[in-house]
């Protein structure tokens, strides 16, 4: 089942279109990564789905319910905007207060548990005004998940966090997915998206220009693979034939006594090459395939 579905969703500010009619489907249980340069329209798109701003036209549903709809509030989790942090409250009071405001009161025990999940267990009684940027991010994530929603929107969840905290949040996001939740996240950290997300959409100037798994994006962006084989010495009697054959198997062939590298069109070719080595009594010890990173693909857009 699709937990997010949008049809021709548009947003304009005055006469300026910002979102140009997005059709998107996100399946239950996905960690969906939404990428785009500054100003691409990611926050505007999320803000429409979470009911913060109204679409100019088009429609969307979340968890099968047409939005925007107050009934959805209990089932979706949203990180609060920085303007809604109450600096004079401590973390527990803050969570209680914002939860009560949205009509979903929570207990102190729930607050403590969720603050532990985001790594703020040492800061329960510290005033939010004294929190660092990264700590506020963690508090925002705690707010988004405290009522155990089915669908969680995380806008740049780890920006401003130290490496250890970011890893803790990555694990938390994976745990949310393992418990059947769907996470829709934006990030400028392409490495994070590559590691975490089952599906990735790249947004440009208010439109989604590419969407798919890492494998699908890779096969779109690069139709060739750079492969390096580490192998045993090639017997002299086989060398000429084998090199001739390798030259037809791919391009940019480079060889040493114990390694060969070339660029091939697809993965099947790699299997063929290993068979050819074996036929010539050459043992293949290691195969390295250089695949494009999300960063390389993103920069192509
Ligand atoms: N209230 C507003 N009035 C007019 N234009 C706006 C408003 N809010 C956003 N925009 C414009 O909409 C476009 C998309 O902005 P948005 O904040 O959605 O981008 P983003 O992809 O989230 O960027 P970032 O990565 O910097 O957070 C930008 O050109 C921005 O200037």
From TrEMBL:
GO-annotated molecular function? ATP binding
> Which PROSITE patterns does the record cross-reference, listed alphabetically?
ABC_TRANSPORTER_1 (PS00211), ABC_TRANSPORTER_2 (PS50893)
Say which domain of life the source belongs to: Bacteria
- One family from Pfam that matches here is ABC_tran
Query: Has UniProt tagged this entry with the keyword Calcium?
Result: no
Q: Which UniProt keywords apply?
A: ATP-binding, Nucleotide-binding, Transport
| Ranges of residues in domain ABC transporter | 4-230
Query: Could you tell me which InterPro entries the record lists for this protein?
Result: AAA+_ATPase, ABC_transporter-like_ATP-bd, ABC_transporter-like_CS, ABC_transporter_ATP-binding, P-loop_NTPase
Q: PANTHER family, per this entry?
A: ABC TRANSPORTER ATP-BINDING PROTEIN, ABC TRANSPORTER ATP-BINDING PROTEIN NATA
In which family does this protein belong, per the annotation?
Belongs to the ABC transporter superfamily.
Q: What name has this protein been given in UniProt?
A: ABC transporter ATP-binding protein
Tell me which species this is from.
Planococcus liqunii
